[in-house]
Amino acid sequence: MRAAAPASLPAPAPAGAAATLGIIPKPWKVEVLPGSFVFSRDTVLVLEDNWAETAPVAAYLAENLSWSPGVKPKITEARTSPAGGSAIRLTLKAQNPELGEEGYALRVSPAEVRLEANAAAGLFYGVQTLRQVLRLEPEGTPSLPCLNVTDRPRFGWRGMLLDCSRHFMSKEFIKRSIDLLAVHKMNRFHWHLTDDQGWRVEIKKYPLLTEIGAWRSDDAGIRYGGFYTQDDIREVVSYARSRFVTVIPEIEMPGHSVAALASYPELSCTGGPFEVQTMWGVHKDVLCAGSDGTFAFLENVLSEVIELFPSPYVHIGGDEVPKDRWKACFRCQARIRAEGLKGENELQSYFIRRVEKFLNSKGRRLIGWDEILEGGLAPDATVQSWRGFDGALAAARSGHDTIVSPVSHAYFDFDLRRLDLRQVYTFEPVPIGLSADEARHVLGGECNIWTEYAPQDAIDGKMFPRILAMAECLWTPARDRDFSDFRRRLGAHTPRLEARGVRFGEEARPLTIFPSLDLASGRLTVAVRSSEPGLDIRTTLDGSRPSLQSLSYRGPVEIKDTCRLKAAAFLEGRPYGQVEEREFVGHHGRGGRITLSPSFSRRYPSAGLHSLADGVRGSLDHRDGAWQGFEGSDLEITLNLGRLQTVRRLACGFLQHASIAVFIPDQVEFFVSTDSRTFSHAGTVWPRVPRKISDRVMRDIAVDLEAVEIRYIRVRARNAGPCPAGHPLVGEKTWIFADEVIVD
Ligand SMILES: [Zn+2]
């Protein structure tokens, strides 16, 4: 039964045959051989040695392979297993120093499968490879192609950060995410547990951290939050350990700590009070560095954290610390004098060193974001470089370890326009300019999923397929990486993951929609441009998703009426990349002449002077090119229709994106005129859209008229005034964003 069935005889292994096996990340060495190992009822998993360490991996293998009915392998020890039967043999005596702690050697022959490693993690990764190459014979029997794989990772630190402060994720979801990392041979889960918007870890000594700090309420009265009990944490850590993933907790300090300050305001410079933040951004209120109470608090918190997380490393954040409060705080200033520090940067450095000393005394090591380099680095700190590669360079050159996760390649919260699959795949964690000796300090890399705009439901789409590219960047030797080959393997890999319920996002945004209004004729045309050659572009105007049966795009399309244009790309007959869409509105004012007071900001010009009458609507993305931005003042828009027209309704579209200080105006007044000299009042609206909500909102503010004949329309929008208290940009100017004056 273990002889290869005729139907499964593989084609001779050509060059690049490894690609057809679809293994991600690509192994170090793969040799595909003729024949296959076909499972039978009698197939057993044989533990050659080290029962205690190999048995859990064997049990995992038995549980996870998709056996056909009736095939249920028993786990046996070598001494009780008769030689010569159909067997998968696991051994931890690889006696191959090349494999290190995480490498493995996998040999599949028609007679048996042999998986060797030096340590259990290696066996586990061998099992992942085995799962990926498993296939079904025509009659439904599982089999493995004959092959030799010798594999080991390039980097020991292969991680992903998940921000569970901005959005809370369930314990089950965290475990699922960890599993999905492990099957791609990733081994670090960086758990961002505290921030301005929520404290998510139970600390017995400070119950208010979760009674108060885990919850936030916006002006609309919606309460949001959650936290992990210490039992939850232990469950997650233990689950991760069974998958050879180390969980690194991140407890943010001294910045990004408003949730802690809301719970214990005495930890701040000002004494508060504070509210758990509902707005994204960098908040000025931070932990007071002058108060010994702050350090006592942190030591107590970290003591409990250390008990929960066996990780040798604890991440303490250290990023984005505005110095405003420290400058004005007599205790912080007293600390600067007493310690002989040169200003607030050195005070931050003092803060981190003091915390590091504590962690070291407990046998743990500190990781911080690259800002911890400012003012002098703590002696043993590991630097996580996010603002590019410079932090990693500086750290490695000064003999410090570094983890590389630059915004350019590793920020999976970014839109695909900024970071698509191909860009992730070009990630090279070792910065240019390091000597071989210095490069040893590069432990590896991480991708970061910040969740300001990504609740749990959106995480899969951010993570996949980009995490597969990241896994390969961190595992596979740089010289063996090839994007086309990777994409081919991805094609084989995707259905396997989708079958497990993974909801893939797109890999790129190759298309851009370019509307343009011809002022002379009033004609609005739309072009669809592609950043990649050879794509088959299809469009629809009824809002439906384009298919291969939809209209083939051949050139600019004229838009006459209100519609929603969607454009999709196809590559080799399959959908490729994100579907783009844009909404258009047909109305009496389209093509009219606009006068603005004041003029729009050069940062957000949209299509220029007349774009508030071009028929192009904005989306929730304030940078989509349809929004015109006006900074810090009231706005007056005058629209000249060119001739008298009968008008029944006036509207103006506005955007609110509170985190970046874009607010829907307090008040919007409409006026009409026949001659542009005398305007009569047509209505006033007070939109009253709650100001503290973190979400983005679009709103058409409108008034109805009694069929009047007019030629001129004037809209006066009152700016919402400076950013309110509690906003990270408190006191600063706010914006009005408008997309269209609509005349019906
Ligand atoms: Zn202070």
Account of the protein in words:
The structure is a single chain. This protein is α/β, with parallel strands linked by helices. It folds into 4 domains: 6-151, Chitobiase, domain 2, CATH 3.30.379; 157-499, TIM Barrel, CATH 3.20.20; 511-584, Immunoglobulin-like, CATH 2.60.40; 593-743, Sandwich (Jelly Rolls). It is built from 18 helices and 34 strands. Strands 1, 2, 3, 4, 5, 6, 7 and 8 form an 8-stranded mixed beta sheet that branches. Strands 9-10-15-16-17-18-19-20 form an 8-stranded parallel beta barrel, surrounded by 6 helices. Strand 11 (194-195) and strand 12 form a beta hairpin. The longest helix is centred in the middle third of the chain and has 18 residues, at 344-361. The protein starts with 16 loop residues before the first helix and ends with a strand. Residues 1-19 have low confidence and may be disordered. The chain binds zinc ion (ZN).
